[in-house]
Records
---
Amino acid sequence: MMEFIAQNMAPIMFASLIIFLLIGYPVAFSLAANGLMFFFIGVLLSPYSGGSINLAWPLLHALPDNFYGSRVMSNDTLLAIPFFTFMGIVLERSGMAEDLLDTIGQLFGPIRGGLAYAVIFVGALLAATTGVVAASVIAMGLISLPIMLRYGYDRRLASGVIAASGTLAQIIPPSLVLIVLADQLGRSVGDMYAGALIPGLVLTVLYMSYILIMSIIRPNSMPALPLEARTLGHGVMSLLVALLVTLAVSYAAYRYLAPAHGDNADILGATAGVLFIYIVAIADKRLNFNMMSRLAQQVIIVLIPPLALIFLVLGTIFLGIATPTEGGAMGSVGALIMAAAKGRLSLDVVKQALASTTRLSSFVLFILIGARVFSLTFYGVNGHIWVEHLLTSLPGGEVGFLIGVNMLVFFLAFFLDFFELAFIIVPLLAPAADKLGIDLIWFGVLLGVNMQTSFMHPPFGFALFYLRSVAARVPYLDRLTGKQIAPVTTGQIYWGAVPFVCIQVIMIGLTIAFPQMVMHYKGTTVDPGTIDYQVPEMPGLSPLGTPPADGAAPAGGGTAPAAPDLSQPPSFGDSPPAKPATPQPDLSQPPSIN
């Protein structure tokens, strides 16, 4: 019995961890307690393991180095997490989400399902600026859900759209989970961001496609805004003219700057065009020139600051100007400036943002410390080898491995959130993926899309809990219409999430089928076979650097040097006098010791 337990310590340890988590113990303490308990058991059972357990008491001395080394306390990559968290919370307090939802809702209002399109569009923008799911879902639940219910949207559809668009912060950079995945996979955060950008945008388009299909199949479930609700009036044509002017100014600036700035001229030109139209819109609104419609003014004034913040954070990272940590720091400063410009920056807002940032950062850090304790023991019982053999032996090779792993992560996402999955499961999967030759950035983005479902899974999806906390539980009177609005039930929230979970599963399949959506981060691959090597010819030398053959005269004229005699050793001038030969000893007589 002892031999069986000792030789199967790895699966027993993993099963014990799952039981601890299902019982409800905190993840960080479950990891640490499990690791220490099985370390003690492993040391005692080591003589019965046949060499499969490599644990001894002095190995515990490695824990302080694991805690304070480059993997936890001194990890510069994880420093980006508090910066992006602080930025997202300040932006949520600044009222940016409210302004965006109101303005974009007015823009899309005349079409059927316009509010749903606006929620998805704003969700993608908030994802690219905040990177925090909770902030996005709560903000849109507070602002958009009452408006959608007021104008007759189906409750399940409205709940699903808000929850799903909020989870876009999981996959669109600067996502916190992408930072953690890059750290656990040992890859660059910048590469992870670049690889995840296109899948995040494709997922946004799939959400909008679903709304389009539902607006055709069930038009009464998402009516257009009535005329009296469109307070900004019409003005789409004015907005299109402003867009054309922006493009013209950007092109002119590009042509002017190209000779001096080269490859950066396109970015500088686009910046000049956007700044020009932004200044024109502000001046038109303040001085009442009335060159633009009210709708065009509001869209430009509300939309450009978050877009500028996105460029400040992601643009500098993709251009190689800043690291993700530096980008997060600049984003935090930009968020403070935006909040101050709106008159909503106060000491209380900063205190709340710092408190929330400290809680989330401590949560991540404690899980990571517990994971280091668990991994020390798990590696000591050769658990990584057991997992690697288990996964690489799946039928189907690389595709079979990807399908099996994604099914496992999808199932575990019912019970664990994305931080727990990233710190517990990903370190076990990465070696097997690397051994199969799978690009780890592609693998990380694929897991990120899959972990996104952890926010939407009934019954433990956190996005559903966030929405439940702000959705009406009892009937209430609408403040504009005076009508009684029925509450949103928990079942409606859960059923509304199901179609979007299916869309996320489709996105996983698309990412596996079309890896180039992620692999573009590598840039253009150069085929070594197409490189043409040319060796310049030197005067007086043949192409290989040897003297000209057949006594040909050198290029500069004169007599060709005689070819050296390679049968003799080289001579370096006058030879030194030869040394006298050493007499050979007479070996027929015994040696003389005198």
---
Amino acid sequence: MKSFPLFILLLLCFYESRSQTNDVWQITYLRKNNGKVPPNQDPIIVLASVSGTSVSSEKIIKGETKTPFEISFVDRADNSLYQIAFFANGKTLMTQDSKALAEQKIELLPETQLILGYTCKKATTVVNSNRIDLWYTEELKVKGAPSALGQNLGIVLKMVRNGNSETEAVKIEKNTPWAAKNQLPQPNPQRVDALTYKDELWKSRFIQLPVFSHQIINFSDSVHAANQVVRFAHGTVIAKKVKFPSVGASSNVFLELSQYSNGDAYDRTGSVFMIPTQRKLSFLDALQKSVKELPIYENGNGKQYQGVVQTPDYLPVLELMRFFTPFGVRQYNYLQLKNKTWADSTYYRQDISDLLPAYNGQEVWVAVFIGNYDKGGHKVSLNFSVHPNERPTAKQQARIVPLFNTTNVMEMAGQEYGTMFNNEKGLQVTFDVPEGAKNLKLRYITTGHGGWGNGDEFVPKANTISVDGRQIFTITPWRADCGSYRLVNPASGNFNNGLSSSDLSRSNWCPGTVTNPIWIELGNLPAGKHTLQVHIPQGLPEGGSFSAWNVSGALMGEW
């Protein structure tokens, strides 16, 4: 690819025919926070002539910055702001804003200050509730600034935001020789509108991993699934094998899911989970064959619970996200109420960075469950966004082991509800702690379900966690903010007292929301076998109504 000096690229290519002088000023800026200069920063470099101004950085000039990176420049002939983004694949995009500079509302003030030997005047403005003070000089006979703000004042030598964040010039040079020595590839940028430009630049900074797109989850064996997507439990579970990229242990990972009704009007339990396959048996065996493939847990109440706890030969599913569909969003938006504009769909986004060791660089099965018996059901889209190396608290040797999951994700194929809490034993699971393990904790998700009035969905119940017979944690999970999500619940029933069903407080969930995990410290457990118990005072059945609890837990630690 042909290359040109950066100075020629940013100034001469655009302004040469209009240039009145060959003089170019180079201003170097450093940032300060609360009076301190952060180490290892990339200084801002501004080039200014009567024809135009460019804003880049020292690393960009030296060719040391990583893509994506961005440069901007101002054409003084038409007072337009241009921005160019350089991407890893060699693509470049450019956008032009002919109004941004002219529309800046800046108040000129009488104060002056001497910076690097130049007398600077003061100006001020407010941007997004932030006060910005600008110190600029007119002595250089050119204009420029380290950002788009104040480009028409003169040369801005200092910017102060809210009194504590500064960008200040540390060096001013004229006609420097670096432009003849440092090279950048000549761009042939595609021109796009400002929103497209910002969106493309934003997306290029992280990894997007799409999994499902408008996939139907319903009760039917006849619905066609997209390529590589398989449907189980009469279509109420969809699954796909996904290859995750290998990223640093400190990376942030978000699970993003959107959902809308394709016919079902009710609030339903949803779960996004991974299917571990490291042991002899896996949940995949049950999905592909029968729920009878799963190991049985019994607590003495006469019922058999399939696949809910780990055994030496089996790991339960690892829950990534517990979510709840609202009452009929999109499909039932025709049910109008005055002064209410229904949402088009429900959007859920949850940080699952703590589970990164379970899937980082691996090929895994990812599945979504929505419990319903409706032929139309729901449509879901799901993807992961991976943001490299942002989490300062990440543990390099972290491990994840799913211990239990009572959410009946194969309900429509015969899996029993989570009703094992109706006696003293409740839910028990035995697990091994490896030699040298430390910082052990339980990632716990819990929601109560069932009945009206006296059902556990609407009655606060304490969840108690014990290890080896010793109580270590108690919480009464409860959500009192359900009324906040009324606009995703068009088909919610309305009562004589003026409340909507979606307004009612519930046992740790609301229609149209995510239920957050709880992290429970397990203390310093010695190596060897241990028994963990979950105890909940589950309510008794009333007629045909019964209570149940969907709880999942994964052991986390370093070993």
---
Amino acid sequence: MTGETLDYLIIGAGPAGLQLAALLEQDGRRDYLVLEGADVPGAFFARFPRHRQLISINKPHTGSDDPELNLRLDWNSLLSDDPALRFTRYTDRYFPEADLMLRYLADFAAATGARVRYRSRVVRVSRATGGGFAVTDQHGTTYRARRVVVATGVSQPYVPAIPGVEHAERYDTMPVDPADFLDQRVLIIGKGNSAFETADNLMETTTLIHLAGPSSIRMAWRTHYVGHLRAVNNNFLDTYQLKSANAILDGTVRGIEPDGDGYRVTFSFSRADEVTKELHYDRVLLCTGFRFDPSIFDESCRPALVINDRFPAQSAEWESLDVPDLFFAGTLSQERDFKRSTSGFIHGFRYAVRALHRILERRYHDTPWPAEKLDPTGEAMADAVIARVNRTSALWQQFGVLADVLTVAGTGGPATAAADARYHEEVPVEYFTRYGLSTPDHPVEHAFVVTLEYGPQHDQVDPFDVSVTRVAQDVVGQAHDAAYLHPVVRHHHQGRVAAVHHLAENLENQWNRPDVHRAPLVAFLDRCLNATGN
């Protein structure tokens, strides 16, 4: 056992673990360690995606030299003040090769000085005598830590409970050479990106491919959730809708049985006239996603699981609901906004990790949330909001999840020139709702929570039908009906939302027109600040 007790032990040196380590280093906190089972950071990307093309976009040529704005179109970089640590410097490819991510993460770890111990695979996490955790690696070395942050990602395949599913070849181990499937009938179970990525790879050599699953396909361009089917993977849809041998089956696989040189699959359709049907395939491939692996935790600190046991249950601080001081970062943090925002992906969780770091600083080290002071007037606050929403990447990527929060301290009456106003960036909405941002020297009376959001029914309509998805551009009176991404400002007073203001939608995402955006926002802020008895 090591002699010291660390403040933080981070499990996993993938993007999230490295991001948190870099932030700790930047703050001068050295009492942490990252344990990584592989001999390089980001080892996940050595295997996945199996067909080696990332679907996270990379756009170096934006026409802007604003690093914050450019992160909107850079989904692979981690957060750093060093311009050399931008993934966009590694390639011009819009969808890069996965091997580049390995190189980038190794460079990031080296440049930031992240304290990583490689070839130290964690095999057991337990409660330590006297408090904290005992974390043991495969060599038998035990580390003690006051807090543990799990950043291992969803590392285990999710295997649905289908009789005979053991006969299917899993996405993580199946061959990827199309020649291996020559003239074969193939069933792919799953309707996500891994399933379509696989189908696209095999279309040229197979006799036919069927994709099966109980849910309808959801297109990312419609839901705005980037984990749904992306256009880069949807060539297969043409072959189905244009009747080119392949098909998509809506329903449930009831069983898989060996049948001579292939497999007999019993399928229950959701919408067709047949109730059940037996279909024959040469191969069955399982592309049903991944889940969290809780096997390293003993009974003293095993976290509860949710969403078909795929994720640990978490609080608004990304802390285990039933294991205090056990936190989760990276892909695992998407449990809080599952299929609603972007916490499952680097371009989302890099900001969630930064928020987690600030939460830990506030909770354990009495460090207030970073804030800038400003005049407590509608005009000054509106200018601050408009400046941020026109360039922020965090609120853009983590829509509806992260917010900028303007707080005004006071005595309970109308705002005065003596009031203290502060601007806090990138606060998780649910965290603010539960814990607030008051400090002894800044007792908050008014708070304005600024988010970027899509309309509440944005995923229910055809996004290419402009007659139903677009309100008139820059029309103030229709701003609340906007389906596309736009700023929303909520006034919190005495523990409740007292008023809501939508900034009018804008094609170029520039919410700075004096008469359309600024003046209505100033009026809203002044009205809220000077209201009494709310």
